[in-house]
Amino acid sequence: GELSPDVEAAIKASWEPIVGNDFLVVVAQLAKFKEAGGLGISLEGTVDVENGVEVRPHHYIRSILPDGPVGLNGRLKSSDELLEVNGKLLLGLNHVSVVDILKDLPQNVRLVCARRKVPLPDSFTQPDMQIPATSPYLAGIDLRTCSIEKLIK
What is the reported pLDDT for 121? Predict the structure, then answer.
């Protein structure tokens, strides 16, 4: 169904104190083409590394298929960080768990993402990709990109 303004405002209000003033909270309500279909996005996972231990994983949209469900919705962009899907927290989960959750979604999907208000000066791997070199809103020491990239489709 449609995303009501009250529900969107409540979701944004719950996330804004967590992500901070440098980020917008973006909510996208969409429908997959079929129950077992995908979202038409690929992900990039990052983690902070402290004392050799991976902590604070983050999951960014690396690319969006223009004719996929997310692309046709038009609200999300490459480099948005996935925070929540259908009320399930994604922030802090490992990349494999997030991919499994995204592959097992029902037809109607609500994605909540964080988007940097001011893009970073240097791009990550693509001109339109602005994944931060440090953890955006949870302090970290070192950031290492996971080699796992999954196409959710």
Answer: 65
Distance between CA atoms of residues 153 and 147, nearest Å: 19
* Residue 79 near residue 130, CB atoms below 8 Å: yes
Residue identified by tokens 């948005």 is 80
Residue with tokens 């959750």: 101
| 138 has a pLDDT exceeding 60 | no
Half-sphere exposure of 68 (CA within 13 A, CB side): 16
Given a contact cutoff of 8 angstroms between Cβ atoms, the answer to whether 4 and 27 are in contact is no
What gap in Å lies between CA 11 and CA 143, rounded to an integer? 28
CA 26/CA 81 separation, integer angstroms: 10
Q: Residue 19: how many CB atoms within 10 A of its CB?
A: 21
Rg over alpha carbons for the chain, rounded to the nearest Å, is: 15
Under 8 Å between Cβ of 132 and 123: no
pTM: 0.77
Which helix (H) or strand (E) segment holds residue 109: the answer is strand 108-116
Residue 58 to residues 66, 96, 107, 108: CA-CA distances in angstroms? 23, 12, 24, 23
